[in-house]
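Late entry, evening session. Most of the bench is empty. Finally got around to the prediction I had been postponing all week. Sequence below, unchanged from the version circulated by S.P.
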Amino acid sequence: MELLDDEIPVIEGCEVNDHPYHPICARCRALVAELGPETPVDWIGRDTRYAEKLATPDTSVADLIGDVDPIRARVGINGLVTSSFAFLGMVGWGSSLYKGPGAQQFDSLIAQAELKWYIAPNPGNDPVSATLSLSSLALGYTRDFFNSYLGDFYARDRGYATLSHFFGGRFLLVIDGGVAAIRYPDIRAPQAVKAFTAIYVDPSLFVEYRLSDSFGLNSTLRYTSNITEQVIAGDALKWSRFEGFIGVRWFI
């Protein structure tokens, strides 16, 4: 601790102690963009900055610095309608609790709906008997919101389809894909930008060979793309990428 500076500047009122020259959170970026050198600062000593925490493998950054926990409340139904069809339906309300002057808030409907067809009919109407080994085709829709580095949040409406087919008790094929509308509110920093919408696509292919009832070798191929002409602070938000993974699963 003796190696730390005696005091460092932080933006006044910031919960994560952003530096005035390098603000990170949306509230502080907006404040610096608006007030510039007039941004109010505090000075904190090294005794205040140093803390100890007993860490475990599941310790996250949010555990160390705190996090904003949005409120989500949903009700719905989930289960087999017939031996061949299942339905999931949930609807509710979501609200964010972002702090600071000018913070954007999400306060709207959230929902999920999915219709699943079991290509090989389920032996009965008991949901527990609908095992993962059953081949199925699902169509669905989700609406939700998430924290964002651009502004405070983004809202997402996503439609998706998933085909899962199990061959001969050994080979599993899963084809999944979705198209989403990503809606951003007005952004004030690092550059003032009016609300806009980007289109996000994410098809993927998963294949697995079961060596035994306990082990499987698998591979995943995924393509993701953010489709928009929006540019912020000289950076284009349009991008695309391919990803590939190989793995092993152990079924306990």
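Two things to note before I forget:
The chain is about 10% helix and 50% strand.
Residues 26-35 form the longest helix (10 residues).
Will write this up properly tomorrow.
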